[in-house]
Every structure is written in structure tokens, then in C-alpha cells.
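Please fill in the sequence for the structure shown.

STRUCTURE ENCODING:
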């Protein structure tokens, strides 16, 4: 499987995910649990070597150490342990090799089924029971015929294993000389809280939304109120910051709709996501995102946001 083989038009509110499973042997009748992760984060799937086990001093019981993979030293996490599923390690186990946030990591699973293409609107919020599970990393559920697939937030797993990954560097936060106004869209409650704090520290007033559709409706309402007051959109809002992976409407589609709107297109848009890689950068360019910042570079984000705002203001004066 290669990312170059994935022909998915940007801005259609679709995404592709790889479905894998973990065989749960803890019950009287063994059960197969199905999970999924955005295929854009997956480099390849490889066979798990024999003898993988937790070593003494491991940062978490799910951490199985490292294995060589060509020119890489690959850290491997047993996903069943993280999800508190009793799984017997078998010779047929596989490792899903992922790349995001600038890190390459392997996740041990029982097996892989196939790649599916679905709409973000098909992704349902996790049930109350799932959302309250300890070490929860489930972002939503998808119905595939007779079975449900739980979508995994791998970033939250790595963030818990490495708490420093998602901390703000408040000493180096860039502070604006005036008050700016931003709309932020991110489905992660923890990331949204960090973004809110980061931008408020940088002298921003922020409207935060939990998915792209909610943000889009919020932007339309801001535009409507500005029109009623006879004000230009740039007088009431300066910038939009959006994650890419979000239920209902993804960041690519949100950006595309903003750039196709006569008024909202006056606003700069930054995509802030773990999917900002060299191989996927072109997708943000296709929907005319003004900048793309890789999570978790919170400190750089506010400085680049202010620079974009000032660039847009100067451009409007030159017209």
C-alpha cells in the first residue's frame, strides 16, 4: 500500500481509513473488535516479529520496545493493551506502521481487513459509554453493514505516552500588538483547550468549534451579522484555524468552502494538523489554505497567524 495509490479528491468531505481488528479472548465466546485509522497516516503494514514483549522500565505496559525496519528503529505499541483488551499474541499478528506529528510508530493488531472510503458525515460521535472509558482514544463510530468500526485517535495515545508533546511553551508565545479575532475548529477537546489558551495568550479573541460543519455555520452567522451592521467581514474576524480530521466536515472541505465564498475568502486560513507532511502538503494547497502547520507546533502557530493577518491587511491596502 502506498500513499501515491490513494486517489482521493481534496475538499469532497470524504476520507479513507484502513480497517483492522483485535481478537478479544477474554470472553467465553471470542470476539473480534474492529477499529480504523485515517489511511493518510499509514505508511505500511508489516508482519510482527516473534518475541515481542514488554520490557522492564517500559513507559507504559503497552510499549513493546523497538524493532528494526529498514533504515528505521520502530517503536511498537500493543494496541490491545492500551484498549484493555485481552489478546493472545500470535505468529500472524501485524504491525500498522504510521507517520504523523513527525513521528513513525508501529501499532500491534491481530489483523487488517481493507481500506474503506466514507464521508466525514457518516462518522458518528462515540456513545457515552465509550467516551467515558479510561484511556479513551475513540473519536467516533462507523457502521459497516453488520458491524461497527471504532475510529482511533492515535495522537492521544502518543500524547499520553509522551506528555511533553502537547504542552504549551508559554514563555515563547508570540504576542500581538493589538487584539485579533479568530475562529478555531478542532474536534479534540484537549487540543481545542490548548489552542484557546495559546491564542488568548497571544492577544486573540477566539470562537472555538468542535467540527468543521459547526465552524462553517458559525462563519455564516458571523458573515450575516456583519452584513446587517454594514461591516466588512475583516472588521469582525481576522483568521480561521482548522484541524483536518473532523466529524461531519473536514478541514479541507471547510477551507474550500471559505475560499469559494465571496466575503469569507477575504480571510486567511491555516490548517493545523498531524496530517501536514511533505506527502500530503499538496492537499492543503489544492483547497487554497494560506498556511499549514504541523501539530503540535503551538508556539509557531500564533506567530504565523499574525503574520498572515498583517499580510492580508497590507494586500487589501495595495488594491
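FILLED IN BY: designer on duty
SEQUENCE:
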Amino acid at each position: 500500500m502506498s500513499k501515491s495509490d490513494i486517489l482521493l479528491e481534496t475538499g469532497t468531505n470524504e476520507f479513507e481509513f484502513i480497517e483492522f481488528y483485535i481478537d478479544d479472548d477474554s470472553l467465553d465466546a471470542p470476539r473480534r473488535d474492529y477499529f480504523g485509522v485515517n489511511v493518510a497516516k499509514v505508511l505500511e503494514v508489516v508482519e510482527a516479529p516473534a518475541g515481542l514483549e514488554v520490557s522492564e522500565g517500559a513507559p507504559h505496559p503497552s510499549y513493546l520496545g523497538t524493532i528494526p525496519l529498514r533504515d528505521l528503529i520502530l517503536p511498537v505499541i500493543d494496541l490491545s493493551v492500551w484498549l484493555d483488551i485481552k489478546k493472545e499474541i500470535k505468529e500472524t499478528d501485524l504491525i500498522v506502521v504510521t507517520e504523523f506529528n513527525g513521528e513513525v510508530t508501529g501499532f500491534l493488531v491481530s489483523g487488517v481487513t481493507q481500506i474503506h472510503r466514507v464521508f466525514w458525515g457518516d462518522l458518528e460521535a462515540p456513545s457515552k459509554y465509550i467516551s467515558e472509558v479510561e484511556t479513551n482514544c475513540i473519536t467516533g463510530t462507523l457502521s459497516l453493514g453488520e458491524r461497527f468500526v471504532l475510529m482511533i485517535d492515535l495522537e492521544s495515545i502518543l500524547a499520553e505516552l509522551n506528555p511533553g508533546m502537547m504542552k504549551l511553551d508559554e514563555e515563547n508565545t508570540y504576542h500581538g500588538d493589538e487584539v485579533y479575532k479568530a475562529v478555531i475548529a478542532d474536534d479534540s477537546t484537549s487540543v481545542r483547550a490548548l489552542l484557546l489558551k495559546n491564542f488568548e495568550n497571544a492577544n486573540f479573541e477566539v470562537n472555538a468549534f468542535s467540527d468543521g460543519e459547526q465552524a462553517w455555520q458559525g462563519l455564516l452567522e458571523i458573515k450575516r451579522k456583519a452584513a446587517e451592521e454594514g461591516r466588512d467581514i475583516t472588521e469582525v474576524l481576522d483568521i480561521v484555524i482548522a484541524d483536518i480530521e473532523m466529524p461531519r466536515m473536514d478541514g479541507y472541505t471547510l477551507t474550500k468552502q471559505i475560499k469559494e465564498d465571496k466575503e469569507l475568502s477575504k480571510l486567511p486560513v491555516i490548517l493545523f494538523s498531524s496530517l501536514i507532511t511533505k506527502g500530503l502538503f499538496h492537499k492543503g494547497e489544492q483547497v487554497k489554505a494560506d498556511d499549514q502547520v504541523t501539530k503540535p507546533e503551538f508556539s509557531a502557530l500564533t506567530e504565523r497567524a499574525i503574520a498572515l493577518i498583517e499580510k492580508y491587511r497590507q494586500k487589501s491596502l495595495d488594491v
